[in-house]
Amino acid sequence: xxxxxxxxxxxxxxxxxxxxxxxxxxxxxxxxxxxxxxxxxxxxxxxxxxxxxxxxxxxxxxxxxxxxxxxxxxxxxxxxxxxxxxxxxxxxxxxxxxxxxxxxxxxxxxxxxxxxxxxxxxxxxxxxxxxxxxxxxxxxxxxxxxxxxxxxxxxxxxxxxxxxxxxxxxxxxxxxxxxxxxxxxxxxxxxxxxxxxxxxxxxxxxxxxxxxxxxxxxxxxxxxxxxxxxxxxxxxxxxxxxxxxxxxxxxxxxxxxxxxxxxxxxxxxxxxxxxxxxxxxxxxxxxxxxxxxxxxxxxxxxxxxx
Length: 306
Hints:
Elements: E1 4-9, E2 20-25, E3 29-34, E4 43-54, E5 68-70, E6 80-85, E7 102-107, E8 109-111, E9 141-147, E10 150-157, E11 169-171, E12 174-176, E13 193-202, E14 210-216, H1 236-243, E15 269-270, E16 283-288, E17 293-304
Antiparallel strand pairs: 1-2, 2-17, 3-16, 4-13, 4-17, 5-8, 6-7, 6-16, 7-9, 9-10, 11-12, 13-14, 14-15
């Protein structure tokens, strides 16, 4: 059964480009691709051009009900999982009993709003003390490592340091949504954003093996905010140029907030069972749990440093 759609979208600034393929991931489906180098890595950087559409739409965005949508955030299939997994014959979600390991970004909700505040238009975890989103709410996404049904470590991803943009709304004169293929407006605000993550193994192969995770902000690759992101050329060549150039390694702060008292271990997410190291992840993984939002991957790549 198909869980997504291959869609051809024009990318030229003048609206007359030949187009490029992108993948729209349906709700409660995952996209998983093994790396050519398998688990033979110490440090890698993952990057992708990402936009969001709504429901059955291939190329248009609509506002979520009541301004926000929530996938639930209770069972493992009601969270979004974006990062690295260990490949296996039986495909599974993180926290499934047969899952052989995940490290990456975890979220379940988004507030869709034409606003430059960093609390808007990004994938989030709703804090336990927070019943709704607002412009001053301190909600964050989580960095996490898991193995089988166990969560090994968590870390908070700071509001303004790399939370994944999910702009797929168009309202009035502010365009923060994918626009029609071939339209000059696809170079307008909100068409697409860059998402980058760096993973590095520490104490590899030992009982204390950890994986650090650094999110790369999209803001300084595009414009001053998620709501004014301007990436029109979403080709693989463009992505490689960005990953090898403007997207330099960034420092992920050990962010904390009053609503989440768990220690922030993003600089060293455990990937061991206390006695032995777990085998490293060897595949890219993107699971979409959102009721309406549909991620659309235009290009992705992984760069191996060592």
